[in-house]
Amino acid sequence: MNELKTKVAYLHGLSNGLDIGAESKEGKLLQGIIEVLDEFADSVGSLEETQEEMEDYLDSIDEDLFHLEDEIYEDEDDYDKFVEVECPGCEETVCFDAGILDDEDIVEVTCPNCDQVVFVNDDTHQSADKPEMQEGKSSSSDSGQKDEVI
Predict the structure, then answer these.
(1) How many angstroms separate the CA atoms of 27 and 45, rounded?
(2) In 3-state terms, what secondary structure has residue 96?
């Protein structure tokens, strides 16, 4: 910004040194051009400052997001395992957290499309197909069931 302002000030000094009368057509034109250039220099300077502030703000957000992701995803195995079953009613695939299988409370999983119960973790519910363990990042499983990378 300072470079533009310096150049505009230099042009202003040159125009004053030309001894062109400020009341002449050429003097008015030259003075008008220099004023517009000065306004452009101010606008560009303001944009540069705003851009720098925005970059600092985005860097701050990026750093905060990085720390938040570290806290949420500290153990990748906890967040990428899920179970996939087919709904007997609408035949859509329903996915849910594998933690439900080990939950001590009775949990019913319903299809979001038709609201039919697709899985109950109390071993009495018969689903259309057996639950299939899925992992989002790896292709091996501790349960011995089929894995797919999705």
Answers:
(1) 27
(2) strand
